[in-house]
Amino acid sequence: MKQIYTYGSYLRDKFGAKVYKVGINISGFTCPNIDGTVAKGGCTFCENDSFSASTDEVQELKGFHLNLDSKENPFLEKQLLQLEQQFYAISSRQKKEYGAEKFLVYFQSFTNTYAPFETLKALYEKALSFDNVIGLSIGTRSDSITDETLRYLSQLAKNKEIWIEFGIQSVYDETLKKINRGHDSNNVKEWIKKSKEAGLNVCGHLIFGLPAESQKMMLETSKAAYKWGIDSVKYHPLYVVKRTALANEYTRGEFEPITEELYLDTLVKSILMKPEHVSVQRVTAGIDDDSLLAPQWCRDKNEQIKQINKALKKVGFKY
Q1: Closest C-alpha among 175, 165, 238, 162 to residue 204
Q2: In whole angstroms, how far apart are CA 208 and each of 205, 285, 308?
Q3: pLDDT digits (tens, 9 = 90+) for 201-252
Q4: 61 DSSP β-pair partners
Q5: Cα–Cα distance between 317 and 307 in angstroms, integer?
Q6: How far apart are CA 103 and CA 143, in angstroms?
């Protein structure tokens, strides 16, 4: 049985230690297809409030949002404090529960290059100053990063492990329009290429089960992402949560979620065509609370992994 090359294996091989990603949510960040720059409302599957926390710091920053044209950031000190508090709370737990030794700070929620350069520089450098942090992973959109930020990250990458995570989702522009993505596939292709040329590691997010997509289309997206040169991949099934545009489509009978059988088959085929050096960071996703509308098989993560390993076993792999 062949073990799939995971992101954890990559980090362990490179750093000789247990490296864990510390997911960070910084208040004041948003997306250009939420604030009206390229679209309004966000992607149809995105429940925007799901990124919000209820801490005092978050409540104070409620209604304050940065973008690439913001001239000032009066809340930078509060954001830096929020970063520090989250890092130490999460990393302490990871040390205690999993024996974590080193950390990669993961700017996770919303679009984490969609802010003035000086704000980004301050946050990134603060994150890199924490004990045992070996680098950064920055979740963003390909239409929300500037050449200035890319040049800066390129300099950091000379001494630190720097990853940038792009939501590819689909290479079909008609699909991207349906989900209100706000940019086309060529934009993602261009910025993956530029990021690689800058010496950054790139993780691509792929979603299977997007509206009206056939399995052939899903696999073409995987094939294109690999060809563009991504170093790591996250696979997601599209699930429906309340308070989203997709939930309205589902309720009206205009969207049918992907079945577990089709997802498993597509996932296995995508993994089989994946270049060996591309690590896998995620093989599924879901949520186990009353916000999930469909499909119900996305509710139990442990059961999903069990079924995924059953499907992989048939082709000689395990996750």
Answers
A1: 165
A2: 10, 11, 14
A3: 999 999 999 999 999 999 999 999 999 999 999 999 999 999 999 999 999 9
A4: none
A5: 13
A6: 28
Q: Which amino acid is at 52?
A: S
Alpha helices by DSSP H, listed for 182-300, are: 185-197, 215-228, 245-251, 260-273
Q: 121 vs 125, 126, 148, 151, CA distance in Å? A: 6, 8, 11, 12
Alpha carbon distance, N-terminus to C-terminus of the chain: 10
DSSP symbol at 296 = G
pTM of the model: 0.94
Q: How far is CA 11 from CA 159, 164, 198, in A?
A: 15, 15, 21
pLDDT digits (tens, 9 = 90+) for 85-132: 999 999 999 999 999 999 999 999 999 999 999 999 999 999 999 999
Question: Which residue from 140, 154, 156 is spatially nearest to 195, judged by alpha carbons?
Answer: 154
**Helix boundaries (H) for 2-116:** 7-15, 56-60, 76-98
Q: Residues 6 or more apart from 14 whose CB is under 8 A from it? A: 161
pLDDT at 58 over 80: no
Q: Which residues contact residue 155 at a Cβ distance below 8 angstroms, ignoring those fewer than 6 apart?
A: none
Structural domains in the chain? 2-318 (3.30.750.200)
Q: Provide the token pair at 236.
A: 């997601």
